[in-house]
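Blackboard transcription, Thursday session:
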Amino acid sequence: MFVLNRLAAALPTLFIVSLLVFWFVDLIPGDPARILAGPMASQDEVEVIRDRMGLNEPGPQRYLHFVGGLFDPDIAVSLRTGRPVATEISERLPNTLIIAIGGLALGVILGTTTGIICALRQGTWVDTVITILTLGGISMPIYWLGLLCIWLFAVHLGWLPAAGAESWRHFVLPILAVATRPAATFSRLVTASLLEVMGRDYLDTARSKGLTEAQVILRHALRNSLVAAVSVAGVQFGAMLGGSVITETVFGIPGIGRLLVDAVSRADYPVIQYSILMFAFFFVVINLVTDLITLWLDPRMRQNVRAR
Amino acid sequence: MRRSEPAIAPQMQVTAGTLPQAPEIAPAPPRWSQLRQILRQPKGMIGLALVLFYAVIALFAPWIATHDPYAQSFIATLQPPSSTHWFGTDELGRDVFSRIVTGARTSLGIGIGGVLVAFVIGVPLGVLSAWRGGKIDFLTMRAVDVMLSFPDIVFALAVVAVLGASTQNVIFAVGLVSVPVFARTARAVTLSTLAEPYIEGSVSLGCSPTRVVLRHVLPNIAGILLTLSSLLFASTLLTASGLGFLGLGTQPPNPEWGTMLGESRSYIRTHPHLATFAGLFLAVSALAFNLLGEALRSVYDPSAPKVQKRGAGAWMNGARGIAQRLSDADAAASAAPVETRNLHVAYLTEDGPLEVVRGVSLRIEAGRTLAIVGESGSGKSTLLRAIATLLPQGRAAISGGSVTVGGQQVERLNTRQIRELRRQKIGVVFQDAASALNPVLTIGDQIGEALRTGSSLSPDEIRSRSIALLEDVNISDPEKRLAMYPHQFSGGMKQRIIIAMALAQDPQVLLADEPTSALDVTIQQQILALLRDMQRKRGMAILLVTHDLGLVARYADDVGVMYAGRIVEAGEVAEVFRAPRHPYTLSLRDSAPSVAAARGLRSLPAIPGEPPNIGKLPDGCAFRPRCGRCDGRSLCAEAVPELRPVGAQTTACHFAEETGA
Amino acid sequence: MTDLTLSGDAITARDLKVHFPVRGGLFSRRVLPPVRAVDGVSFRIPRGSCFAIVGESGSGKSTLARAIVGLLRATEGEVVMDGTDLAALDDAQRRQMRRKVQLVLQDPHASLDPRMTVRATLREALIVHDLCRDRDEQDRRIEEVVRQVGLSISHLDRYPNALSGGQRQRVAIARGVICKPTVLVLDEPVSALDVSVQAQIINLLMDLQKALDLTYVIITHDLSLVGFMADDVGVMYLGRFVEIGPARQVCNHPVHPYTRSLLAAVAGVDPEHEKSRPVEILQGSVPSPVAMPPGCTFHTRCPLARDLGPRLPPGERVTVEGSAIPALCAAEVPEPRQPGAEPVAVTCHFAGSGQPPETAATDAADLQDKGR
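(Written on the board underneath:)
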């Protein structure tokens, strides 16, 4: 029931998102058909292309045409390479996902561990060091960190390749770089929510049952504080997908982010459209998934949903 | 790239709950003290200093710059740092230091502009949708949802793609991206402020909606919004520079840190210094605003974790040492389920240890109920926690005297032994049943845990014992209830479940801290009658902490009246209430409306003044300033009265014998 | 203030209902019944008297208080204040009207704006209702009121967090009386305060009532307070009055089984008396207002019905939650009626008509008798 409700709420969002992305073309200065045809083409040739692209049709039909492009590779073609957008995206998607998932996993593991340590060792030097590191982590521009990593590990030490996506070794640096922000954010969040939970009576209830401090933290405190952390994990994953536009530029990785940046600088609007749609789609799905996980972790939410 | 709203607004509740708080030193909130509060934190001081540093650089850039930031020189390209070019030169021979200084204007300008755009659009939207609710709220939140469906740098890219790459467009793009965050936060804090009773107070006073928003809502959310602005400034700066890095922000030759970083990318192998300085300035400026934001947050956000004072551990260890020595002195083990001797408990405050319990000796026999009566700040809950071995670690400790539970002296036990003691001999019932149960575990899990810990019962046995426990506390349908979660029960039922858990290991003593204060009057009676029945069946000792004399009269055998950390009168309930000898007990009893009504009085015999602030107790008898009997006699100010037998009870009053017939 | 000299009622309510709509889920087509927080309440409060509304959480007493103040609009029925029907006013007129009815809230820690000094809080009331010509006059009025509630001028420039609980409640009361209202609605005015401070505040309230000729509406769960302060009392259960009448009569000789259970829960401070007396404890808890029981809403917990049920022939009784109760209770909503000579209205099919109420439950009555 809840899943249905959430899906029902996500569908209109997706619809509006796709409408926005669709209209967005009209906002771009210049005539897409003219761009595709090239500066040398005659007016007739431009008209033919315009017709083939469905630009002469009325709005609703053009929208259907646009949605159809999701399923029919021939409709949406890159202005730059002439290849179907679907092919361009599907070739690059794995690289983007590997970095995002790897970075998130590493970040969550690092962040949760340091967060717990920080909460349990409040006021000690460990806490101070971790706090400074996390503050540094959220303030660090990832493109600078990436450049520093390249300089240190690739140029100076020569341990890892600087650019490309040929082997697993190419992914080590990008994953390390993108993991800093989620690690820092997660660490701070876990600390804050653990500290909040620490004051709750149910921990004392658990202690008065004779549980060890470790059991109290793991069984009672952590799970409650994870409820807040999960939704942030979702947001971070989305942010990392978005961050791929920068990471992939820094590390020279052929992924969707790089594709989008190139498309923007070359006004390759079908690619822009569909890759933005792609990002939005992932974002909505991730939010849905995190909602479901939160629900599984926190039974109170289930009731709220039903009451609503 | 930071889409997460700094997790402040949505959980704006004060979480201290029922934990006994060290008495707070009341601060005055106005303007200057807020600045002082920020500066008192290291992060606030560093953050503010760095922000000022950057502001100075940006404002005085033309005077600080050593060279013309645009002047190219092809004979001096890509030079390393030197005395002429402090940060070296770039690929066109321009002075990097001057470019960075000049770039501060652009970079910080984009940050300010972006936050301003987001603030000006987002805050009114958020406040409006919280205030008006209904359709406006629905539409705004839908729009926010849609905007949040794009990763923000992607959204900014799209905006730049439409408008073209330029500094103004970047400001607009990064501003637009942050609008949803402002709108959401403004909405959430407005909603929670609107739910405050003082808003209802002003509405009922007759304030118009405009006045309520302007005079009450906005001043109270301003701090949070300021905090958010500072934190968002950092992320806006990073996003904007990210666009610059991609070549889609500020266009060359204008200096901007992100753009400069982007240009340096090609030279990272050969001339790493190009990336170093621009990156450093960018990172440190983001750090500055993050630090400042953090400091602001701990001032303005009640749910932000409070700064813990260093050195707590050292002091606590010292305190434990004292306790050890004191308790060695009178180590004779006690046979009673609970006994304390001259117990002192102190909280650690910013101004050093503060004794909240100041020498309490009590003894509870098996099968009897001792009620501790007192007002807020009397130390009664702290006393209970000390006996329960549940003093908040690192914040409070036994600073003298001893606690003996079930014949074992608590201070002498190691961690494992304390666990065993808690498990086998002590049951605790808290005031707020809602927070005493873990919201994410089923009742069955939580009761089962109490049974399972330290025993070797099979799952079936645990289940049947759990069911039996629930039946004991009169919960119908126990089999079905085991799979339910705490929020599915009413307050009274939750308290029954807590009692079932406390009884799981057949404790020798049950400690109940205001177990019914949060419940309706008819439910109160149910719970206390249940506790009494359980006591009769199991013969345990009960310590009942309460402020309600009526409940004491009905359910307790013995009573100790606490005032300012000491017991001022103790004895059997029947004796103490029939003929109180201490003026405080006497006034408490007689100021109850039912007693006054019974005597046909039209005015209550009230105790003047307020309960004392434990940090500033008067010399001698703590009750002296409020006492009608003292009458300025010097003995009251000179000597602290000790508990001594007077009549059938013990009383700590120099003039207990003067009690009127 | 000529209207104060007029005799008559300060407030009357006729068949007042406040319902809250319940929204269904996205996929549920069924229309949910509204929450009937206040469901048909009538009373009149004579000028200068003190009317108490007593009930447990969920009884609707706070909703009723807010409907009286005009913070909530009545779904049905009317509230007439000084001859003006509140429902007939527009928003601006209602705000004007609020000068005459002031609300004092339970928790003084939360009911004062933390960013306003005491003086600013009090001045606001004068500004909103445009009661003083200039700042000097405002200050004079503020200082006068502050003294009236037992605070000193030195408190005026403090912020609420620099005041103790009792002092804050005095400020809240000062804000309530500064614009010379005729009615003060007090929502649990002392229950958040320390025991030793409660008596001070109660005394202050009683003095103010006399001095300023105020009409009080007190919302409380504490029947001992009602016996002391109130002239009349209405006992609420699930949005309705189950018993309403003179406080002395209701507290000393309660008729409705719910009132009697509430009184039984009030424990005196005489331990011998408290321990020797068998206390009849009301079982169960208040049903959810979303799923109100049919017939008499109290029948799921009613001790009287459980007492009477088994004595009735099988055709006239039904079994509810394991106990036999009269079929009438579960089927028909009782109408208010007056069982005795006293002007007490009781909403129960049986109470006061069959057997006389047993004296065991009338705790306050015993105390009263002893006191004399």
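Lecturer's comment: The two ends of chain A are 12 Å apart (CA to CA).
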